Amino acid sequence: MKNIKVVSIHVLCWLLVLGYQYSGYLIESASFSSMAFGISMSVIQIIEFYICYLWVYPNFLHRNKIPQLIIAVLFTLAVFIALRYLIEEVFYLKWFGFHNYAQDTPVLTYVLDNIYYGTSYLIIPAAVYSIQQNYKAEIANRKLKDEVVKSELAFLKSQVNPHFLYNTLNYVYALAIPLSDQLANAILRLSDLMRYTLNESPDGKVTLRKEVEYLESYIALFSMRFEPNFFVDFKAEGVNEQKVAALMLIPFVENAFKHGVVTDEKQPIRIRLKIIGQRLSFEVSNKISHAQKDHSSGVGLVNIHRRLDLIYPDRHELLTANNGNTYKVTLVINI
Predict the structure, then answer these.
(1) Helices 160-176 and 181-198, interaxial angle, to 10°?
(2) What is the mean pLDDT of the segment spanning 251-257?
């Protein structure tokens, strides 16, 4: 339905443009040759328009692709000149016995003249494409603002029960100390995880050091369920005070624990976090468990895709690999 609407708008615009152009020919009772040259020019300009609109500007109108953009624009101009020569100087001469330019017209004169005629339809699609992209960006920003408002309301609503639970965990921890060190340690770990999720910064970002501490607490808490048969190899390099979106890494670890095997010493879950300059690389691999899984919807990974698109647009890469035995996910972010 959306594509039909776009096509209809394009058709209507071309009808208005062509109607305006050819009304002059009808009023002046132009000759057949004039009409033929007008039609060929319009057809070639439309072809030039859509080469730019559908290929050149969507692919090369970026800061880091200026050389490719220049080459593509020159190529489009060359197509315009070649098509005009082919139709008006070859086909028209063969079919109707007339052509547009004199036979002794110098090649350079012909090329410069057609660069003049072809330039306008390089500029028009650029303007149309830019207006369209700005409109899409405005719509996306509106949606993002609406989502932010909804998220803030949901966050405020969710604070009541978690704060109560966090305070209760501290009380239960005090009661558990005389009974069992292991139980008290588990409650303390859970309390640390809860405190981290509640103390998110205003801009939604935390230091990588704190994010790593959260991962370590999560792994330590999960290990209590399987000790001593719990095998996870976690290493972090270059971690310091770099900022990253909070809770961005944990869904991948949760997914590995949920769908992987944590009790295989020969094939432990492998977690690697490495920072080189402003480039964060996070890799999680696990042996796939074929035991029956719960039927949860996997909202965590769906949310992480959405968060990456919103927070790090065009600044992240998320890759997955599955060979039937091992599942691996690699996240790269320019932070």
Answers:
(1) 160
(2) 89
